[in-house]
Fold this sequence. Notes:
Helix content is 4%, strand content 43%. It contains 3 helices and 30 strands. Strand 19 (203-207) and strand 20 form a beta hairpin.
Amino acid sequence: MKIIQKTFGEVNNRLINQYTMVNDNGIEVTCINYGCIITKIITPDKEGNFENIVLGYDAINDYITNHYYFGAIVGRVAGRIKGAAFELDGETYELVKNENNNHLHGGMTGFDKVIWDAAVIENDQEVAVKFSYHSPDGEEGYPGNLDISVIYSLNQQNELSIQYTGHTDKKTLLNMTSHSYFNLSGNFKRDILNHALKIKSEKYLELNEENIPTGDLLDVTGTPFDFTSESMIKTGVESEHPHNILVGKGYDHPFLLQTNHDNEIILMEKESGRTLTVETDEVGVVVYSGNFIENGGYIQGVPSRKYLGICLETQGLPDAIHHPHFPSWVLEKGEEYSSVTKYKFGIMNTNTN
Ligand code: GLA
């Protein structure tokens, strides 16, 4: 295993470094210390062709102007906070409004748009990069000085693990996620409509017209949201179900997970044979099928368009601060925020039966 470092670009006179972790099976994960962005993940298909399976850019300027959160760490709070305001211990906090009247993905300058410190970790079992960031009290409107770290580590079992940690000096909110857009076809040869997905989830969250949870948890049975057995992404994209139409035809929905660290989410693409298994200790996952990716321009040589990638954003349920029956992601002073999500890159078993 090894880790290769080089300069990726410059932001505000600070050098942005690129780190490529490589294991002995040839799997590569590349990330940069701007936004903790994962720029590339190279894995083999069933014929042994090594190709990229995440949307990304080659130049730092594209990431600076990008509003898709490609590969980034999102925070302090992933998803939308209604009215961009919340109350903690009787005090009202106003957040930056960056989507209509609401707050999305940590605000205008969320964790995806800041420079992180980086340290390389290498041992017999894995290669890793630890990113750290100090978010000052009041940043984007949130209370508390917050110190966070995100460790990306790659092992010989072809697993990438993301470990999130956080501490605050004042009660605050923290609910981070990783916003990679996966496309298992390899180098974006096909869009993700024929990707099959399996999720251990019997409930998804109803959203209002601004994509914010209403508070109702709905049963997936008999709907395009039923991924308890494998189902294609195009099921929801082509469906007349009002909840698919509401989010621009497809998925942009939180699902409540029934298990942790037990093959919760499996994404598969039959043609390439690639599989991605996601295991987490989070309570939920937002499945976003790339419905808002616009036409125009290129993404690594491929014309930009809808459904070019799918995000599997493991996290606490969105807008939980306004829904007391959702598990809380309030972080107390002195408490540790700690969460791990693992992504295992595999090949489908081609022996049928
Ligand atoms: C998330 C949101 C989407 C969209 C994307 C970024 O997945 O839920 O609605 O904002 O991020 O384009």
